[in-house]
Amino acid sequence: MNALRSEGPGPGGPDPAPAVGAPPAVEVRGLTVAYDGRPALRDASVALPAGSMTAVVGPNGAGKSTLVKAMLGLVPSVSGDVRFFGLPHAEARPRIAYVPQRESVDWDYPIRARDVVAMGLYGEIGLLRRVRREHLRRADEALERVGMGELGDRRIGALSGGQQQRVFLARALVQGADLYVMDEPFAGVDATTERALLELMRGLRAAGSTLLCVHHDLGTVPEFFDHVVLLNRRTVAAGPVGEAFTQPHLEACYGRNVRAAGPAADER
């Protein structure tokens, strides 16, 4: 399998500086979502600077996936306002790529990995137009970037969980987005795939993109991310990891039995 490659500086490289006065990459104000009359999110508010790499963490049932789906208009909201780069979702959509949870996908559907990646170009191609050779070439280039260049003809259901996750990241990459929204990108993958995905994500960030990831492993938050949102049906804390990822905030989000390793989670 080809080694994963990323564009721009790797880990430890310079952070991209947002333009002075630029709007946040994501701004959520007072977002409330309910299922069957029961609130899944209540008055959630978040602002993420462009060029950041943010984890959304919280206990099971906290509304993490609901937050990103409501932001993207995939589930209806009761109230609230969401802006991307200062624009409503309908106007900013071409600048956003979404990587869903693997569990939400029908892996028995008979489709090749290359064709899944090409779906990321449908906004450009149009739903009723043919996928041409040029589009497949770009899909192959995206697969190459995630170390899957030799498996483009493999049926998606025949791939391992880590390979499937790489294919979905390639589908996002082919869009050339400014914002990548990922729902549990590291869930169910092996350590090698985890490090490979992280390397590529850091490369995207170094090149100026913004990444927002639903995440479940508190222990890796300080290593993987520079910003964090602690969510438990409401926004408990949000901001740079060094400021928001503290023991008091963790306890307010999870309860008193939680503890995350690392200096960012020390008492303040």
Please describe what this structure looks like.
It is a single chain. With 268 residues, this protein is an alpha/beta fold. Helices cover 30% and strands 21% of the residues. It contains 10 helices and 9 strands. Strand 6, helix 7 and strand 7 form a beta-alpha-beta unit. Helix 5 (133-145) packs across helix 6. The termini are far apart.
Q: What does the largest sheet look like?
A: 6 strands, mixed
Beta strand count: 9
Order of helices and strands: EEEHEHEHHHHEHEHEEHH
Beta content comes to 15-25%
Oligomerization status of the protein chains: single chain
Tell me the strand order in the biggest sheet: 5-6-7-3-8-9
CA radius of gyration is 18 Å
Quickly count the helices: 10
| Shape, principal axes of CA atoms | globular
Q: What share of residues is helical?
A: 25-40%
Give the overall pLDDT as a whole number: 85
Distance between the termini: 46 Å
The unreliable regions are: 1-14
Determine the structural class based on helices, strands and strand pairing.
Answer: alpha/beta
